[in-house]
Amino acid sequence: MSFEKIISVPGLSGLFKMVAQMRNGGFIVESLLDARRIPVSSTQRIIMLKDIAVYTMEDEMPLYLVFKRMKEQDGFASGVSPKSEPADLLSAMKKILPEFDQERVHASDIRKMFTWYNLVKELIGSEESEKAMQELLGEAGVEAAEVVAEEPVKKPAARKKKAETEGEAEGAEPKKARKTTAKAKA
What we know:
Layout: E1 6-8, E2 16-21, E3 27-31, E4 37-40, E5 47-48, E6 53-55, E7 60-62, H1 63-72, H2 74-79, H3 86-96, H4 107-120, H5 127-137, H6 156-169
Antiparallel strand pairs: 1-2, 1-5, 2-3, 3-4, 6-7
């Protein structure tokens, strides 16, 4: 099992791995807690763990890399109870990730991180997860801290409108949209 196939479903406790896709667009998922399989509708929100990041003072750090830091300090991280007081959770998180943004990362988020870490710590650092996350984060030589956000992709309509306005600026006449009408048969 790879880290990239693990999901969180809001409203359901724990983490799940995707087992199969249903015909209607939903999924069959298996709980990492008790291996119980349940269907998840295509209308439910599904959050991939690989897409979650933690706010730091400079940028965002992917959750997988936070889990890797927890794995490096496994004796300490495994000993932290997710049911601890919020102040204890914040101090524990400071020891593991000193640069996390305390204003944007709440105690409930930290509680989830410690709960989830205890469920997936065997996957962190495995060859399959490392390979998948390396592809996600970039080329093999790119460190996670150096990952730069890509330039947002412009919508095609915006490009078309820009091309039309550039054409007008050059003195060319803009193309007019054709009107189509549907004729009703009598």
